[in-house]
Amino acid sequence: MGIPKGIGLDLDNTVIDYTPAYRATAARMGLPPQFTDRESIRPLLRRSEVDDLEWQRFQALLYTDGLAYAKPAAGLSEFLNLCAELHVRVFIVSHKTATTPTQFGGHDLRGPAKAWLVDQGIAPDHINLNDIYFCSTRAEKVQKIASLGCQAFVDDLLEVLEHPDLPMDIRRFHYQLDAPAFDSPALGVQPANFTSLTTWLASC
Q1: What does the pLDDT look like over 89-132, one tens digit per residue?
Q2: Which residues pair with 90 in a beta bridge?
Q3: Which of 13, 23, 12 has the alpha carbon at shortest distance from 177?
Q4: Which letter, b or e, does each residue of 93-121 get, where b requires 16 or more Cβ atoms within 10 Å of its Cβ?
Q5: At residue 78, does pLDDT exceed 80?
C-alpha cells in the first residue's frame, strides 16, 4: 500500500479519551461506584434499541460538560507528528448530531467538540479545521469517509468499520487502548491504538 495519502479518525472515544469524563458523569448521575466506563455504563442505561433515554441523557452530559475532563488519546500526538512528517492528510469524521435532544436542553454538540480540538492543539496545528466533519447519521458518516478518499480509518465502533457501504479497499482499524502491536495490517478489521498505528505508519 505504501504511505497512505489520507487517514480518517473517529472523534469520540478515539481521538478524545473520555475515561475521566465517564467517571465524573457517572458520579453526577448518581450511578453506583462500580460503573465508571462505557463498557459498564452503556448496557446499564441502554435497555434496548427503543429504550435508551437514560443513555441519551448520559451522553448529553458526557459530550458537553464532560469535555472539561476529557484528554487526547494516548499516543495521538506522536501519531499526528509522524503524519505531518510524512505528509499524510488527516481527517476527523464524527457521527455527532448538531445538538443534544430537546428534552436534555438542545445544547450545541459540535461547537464545543471543535473548540476542544483547538484547545488541545490538535486543530489547526495538525488537522485542518476544514478537514473536520460532523455527520448526523452513521450512514452519512460512512458516505463521507468514502467521499474523502481515506485509505485508512480508525474508529472505536465496529458498526462503522463493518458497514456494508464502507469501501473494501479502506484499511479498517478498530481503536482499542490496549490493542497489541502488529507487523502489518490484517485483512478486514485490525485492532489498533495510536502507538501501534505510529509503528505501522513508520514502516509503510
Answers
A1: 999 999 999 999 899 989 999 999 999 999 999 999 999 999 99
A2: 7
A3: 13
A4: bbbbeebbeeebeeeebbebbbebbeebe
A5: yes
Joined together, the cell numbers standing for residue 121 give 492543539
Instruction: Give how far Cα 67 sits from Cα of 141, 174, 191, 204, Å.
Output: 22, 23, 26, 34
- 46 exposure class (CB count in 10 Å sphere: 0-12, 13-18, 19+): middle
User: In angstroms, rounded to a whole number, what is the distance separating the alpha carbons of residues 185 and 47?
Assistant: 35
| Residues belonging to the chain | 204
| C-alpha cell, 46 | 441502554
Other Cβ atoms closer than 10 A to 184: 9
pLDDT at residue 184 is higher than 90: no
Q: Do residues 170 and 155 touch, judged by C-beta distance below 8 A?
A: no
